[in-house]
């Protein structure tokens, strides 16, 4: 199984985001109420590997149509704001 890539991230205030690209090696998505990017964090300096493209390491949204055994099966995801929360915008209720 290959981890899906983060195709785009609009959370430009995240420490892992550089030019709308995620540079965390793997993000975690989900909490009981919504498909929040649990890896989102702010910091005074950039985080992650600038040469790496972010991937989805785990997804806790078991009700998503892309989720099989808490692993994302989408070919790639988009992360962005839903109101004031940084969410997986690829989330699709099953």
From TrEMBL:
The DUF1540 domain sits at 9-40, 59-87
One matching Pfam family is DUF1540
Query: Under what name is this protein listed?
Result: DUF1540 domain-containing protein
